[in-house]
């Protein structure tokens, strides 16, 4: 197991195959802005697929399987999966990512915002869900739709420049402890829950 993260800026192209484009782009832009602020990494939306290294598909449920498989060389979708994300890496460096959200199905279950937030966050290098992190968008038992204070801390830890793609568990553990200590001393950990709520998505959804 090695650390996975981006070195190059994220250039996100939205392939919009459904209605409500303005609303969806407002939600996406608000979340990308917060991710960039938290990590200090350059993340932006681009208007052309040729300029992108992240493709976000907003489509209908009936189109999900054929479109996903056409972009992943036939990769099968696990049973019961609502929204999908995949990253391509080399030596721990994330080079490309794909996200697919069936907007009609996600909206039906009240999960559209959750899908946008969770999948776009996970492609930064935290792809696995775990019940050991709570409250967090990475915990399926958590009711959080938006980033939590713990998520903010995890993202800051991951994108600290001392942690490099390809590092092994022991390297990450050794360096990471020092980073966490610094975050604690600077007040980031104590204020994380308050700080994360300054994100634009919190304002748009009336959570602050």
Task: Summarize the entry for a quick read.
It contains eight helices and five strands, in the order βαββαββαααααα.
Task: Explain the overall architecture.
The chain has 208 residues and is of the alpha/beta class. The protein has a single domain, classed as 3-Layer(aba) Sandwich (Collagenase (Catalytic Domain)), CATH 3.40.390. The protein contains 8 helices and 5 strands. The protein has helices at residues 21-39, 61-71, 103-108, 112-122, 149-158, 169-185, 188-196, 200-204, and strands at residues 10-16, 43-46, 54-59, 84-90, 93-102. It is globular and about 50 Å long.
Distance between the termini: 38 Å
Instruction: Describe the global form.
Output: globular
- Share of helical residues: 40-55%
Strand content: 15-25%
CATH class: Alpha Beta
């Amino acid at each position: 197991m090695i650390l996975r993260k981006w070195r190059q800026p994220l250039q996100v192209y939205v392939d919009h195959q459904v209605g409500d484009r303005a609303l969806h782009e407002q939600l996406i832009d608000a979340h990308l802005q917060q991710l960039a602020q938290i990590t200090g990494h350059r993340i932006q939306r681009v208007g052309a697929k040729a300029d992108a290294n992240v493709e976000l598909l907003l489509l209908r449920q009936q189109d999900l399987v054929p479109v996903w498989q056409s972009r992943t060389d036939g990769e099968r979708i696990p049973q019961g999966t609502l929204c999908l994300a995949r990253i391509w890496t080399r030596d721990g460096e994330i080079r490309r990512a794909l996200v697919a959200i069936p907007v009609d199905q996600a909206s039906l279950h009240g999960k559209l915002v959750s899908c946008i937030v969770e999948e776009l966050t996970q492609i930064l290098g935290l792809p696995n869900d775990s019940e050991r992190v709570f409250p967090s968008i990475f915990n399926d038992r958590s009711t959080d739709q938006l980033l939590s204070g713990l998520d903010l801390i995890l993202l800051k830890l991951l994108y600290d420049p001392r942690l490099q793609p390809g590092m092994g568990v022991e390297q990450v553990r050794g360096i990471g402890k020092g980073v966490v200590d610094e975050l604690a001393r600077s007040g980031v950990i104590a204020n994380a829950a308050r700080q994360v709520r300054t994100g634009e998505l919190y304002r748009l959804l009336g959570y602050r």
